Description:
The structure is a single chain. The chain is an alpha+beta fold. It folds into 2 domains: 38-109, Type Iii Antifreeze Protein Isoform Hplc 12 (Alpha-Beta Complex); 116-247, no CATH class. Helix content is 31%, strand content 25%. The chain has helices at 2-33, 106-110, 181-189, 208-218, 245-273, and strands at residues 38-44, 59-65, 121-126, 142-153, 156-176, 179-180, 201-206, 222-228. The strands form 2 sheets. Strands 3, 4, 5, 6, 7 and 8 form a 6-stranded antiparallel β-sheet that branches. Strands 1-2 form a two-stranded antiparallel ribbon. The protein is elongated, with a radius of gyration of 31 Å.
Amino acid sequence: MKQKIVLIIAAGMGLLAFILTHFYLEAERREIYQGAERAQIVLAREDFPSGHTLRADDMVEQEVFARGLSDQVVRAENRSALVGRTLQYPLRQGTGIQWIHVGTNLRELTGLAPTIRSGMRAISIPVSAETAVSGLVRANDTVDIIGTFSFTDPQNPAEMETVTFTVLQDVTILATGQDTARVEQQIEITGGGRRRSSYNTVTIAVFPQEAELIEFAKNVTGSLALALRNPNDRRYFADAPPIDFDTLQRELPRLNRERRRILGGEEATEQQRR
C-alpha cells in the first residue's frame, strides 16, 4: 500500500514538473517572439494543377514570422501581381505561393522596366495639379503634351514672345510619381484600401528622339501640361498651328464655330438614336 502511494506521488510530481516546464517554455517562447517582425503571406486556397490560371479568390493570406522568410515567398502586398498568372507547378492547399510557381520573380512583375514597350523609353516630366488635370491623370491613361514657351521676339529683342503648341499626341502614362499601373490595379482590387498618393512627376513612354525633345522642352523657359484623352480616342491631329496672341485673336471665332458644329452634331445624333 505504501509503495502504491509513493508511485502515485512520483507520478503526480512528474506531471506537475511537465506542466511547469510547459508553461515555462511557453513564457520563454512568447518573450522571444514578442517583438519579432511578422508578415502576411499568400497561400493556395485549394489544390491547383500546373497550368491553372490564378484568380483573386484562389488565394488566402496568413500571418507568419518574417525572420528567415525567403524572398521567393509572395507577400500579401504583392498578391494582385499573381492574378492572371499561370502556374508552372502544382500547388497543394495551404501551401505558401512562391514566385517560382508562376515562373517569374517580383522585379519582373512589379518593376517599371518590363512595362516599357520594346523600342521606346521612359522619361519623367514635372507636373502640378494644374498641369495634370487636377491630379486626375493615372497610370495607363493617354494624354497629349502641350508646351508653352517664352523666347525673345526676333523682331523686337527687348520683348518676350509666348507660344503654345502640342508637343506630342497620344502618349501613354507609365507612372504617376512612383505609382505604376500595377499599383493602380492593386488599389482597385482592394477597394481603395490604399489611398492614391499625390505626385509631382509623371513618367511617359516615348521613342528615343521624342525623349530628347521632351528633355530639351523641360530645360527651356516655359511649361508642359497634360491634356487627358478618352482611352478609345486614338486620332492624330496633323498640322495644328502654334498659338500666340495674334493666332488666338484670329482663330478664336473659327474654333468656337467648329466646336458648336461638332457638339451640335453629336447632340443631334443622340436625339436621333432616341
